[in-house]
Specification:
about 475 residues; alpha+beta; 15 helices; 6 strands; flat
Length: about 475
Amino acid sequence: MLQNKLIKDNRLTFLILAVSALVSLVMLVFVTIQALRWSSYKEQTENARSEIASLIKKRPSPGKENEKRLKEDAELYKARVKELVLPDPLQPAVDKFFETLEPPLESAFSSPSELAKYKVPGTGIKADPKKGTPAVPVKIRKLTQREFLEFFKKRFDDYCNKNVAREDRKWASALNGFMLSYNHKFFPAGNWDKAVKAFVNEAKKATFEPINDATKVSILLMAIGFERKVEKELASSQAHIDNMKIGINKYAVGKKMSLFSSAEAFIGGGSGDAVSGRGSEDSGYKAEDYPALLFHWDVYGDIVKRLADANVATLNQIVVRARKNSEEKRSDVIDLRSSVENAGDFRVSHYTVVITGKMSAIRDAVRNFDAAVKDNRMYVVRSVFLQAKENGAAALMGQGDETSQLNEADKEQPRRVSTSRRSGQRREASAERSRSEEEQARLDRDAKLPPEKRSDYGMIYVGGDEESIAYIDIDYIVLAK
């Protein structure tokens, strides 16, 4: 009886104890299962470690080789990202060149190891009579842009080491000599000329620089990544810039945009003209300066094109924001070393453009600079300062030029203000009499309506599409090659 009474009086306690025991049992089973799993995982890990150690003992560790490959891949991806983000304006023409260019001839390679680098895998195999396998002729694949640059530079350097003095290698004469002697031997007959022609046809759409027989190869190689070659004779480079300016001016005239007439405008470099009185020997630059000068003139031509396409009325001035050449007195000769800023993987040139035109044309010009990335050019418009050519507010108030008289002697100010007011009142009265009956009827109707419902509601009186002068600061960005 006492035991039954003890159980009856402590039912809740015994129930809690039973549930606790059940939960403990379940947890014990769960912990046991997890311990068995962890033991299995540990055994598998130890087996994998033993297998890796065994493989490493059989052959050298691939760690250093993999590290080298990873670095090469990283550099390749980095270069590819640059090309995708900011390609060269002549890149579409370069692409046409490589689409047309066939693989090099087998005889173009100087060693079996170099040939092996460019041949198609599985080709160039000798016949094996024992196995009964036939010979597979060598087949060379097409070169990428990067491979072509390496291929060309090696052969050009070999040619220069044998035939050209070191100080003359920077001139176009060295490149021309190489092309005449060797380059046509590297590719199938006629293919080189065909590929260059494909480049020229496309490149002419992207620049005002004359691309002719004398310049086409140097421009092509520059677009691929080779240093620009110019003639050692100063007159030749000056004439090249003169021809470039003719094309730019012709485009502007065709678009009815006026250009500034200063003979020493922009950065010079031409042969001079009748206005300046300069001769070809007085350009202010040396022959080795002309690769940089041609770069700036190419940008100048593109800026003119974008302004003309926006229907800007006048290009007043373009200034390269760089230090002036301390050795030259003329304002158009700049220090070319300071004209391009090196910013990591990019090169930045700074320009200030002064234009005159309608507000709508100025807005379109800024839009054209922003949209230049579609043509593989990158402009950053840093600032735009606007100055109205006429005082629209003064004309609206009916004061006209008399407004300027208010700034003279203070003692005459009241009399002149009253004179201006009377003049304005007379003009208003005259205008009132000259209005047609229809116009007067419209005004009478509008007078009875709320302001927001009148016919002239929202009409712009000041600050509309008026002619203004704009000062635009622009950065032009290219990839450092």
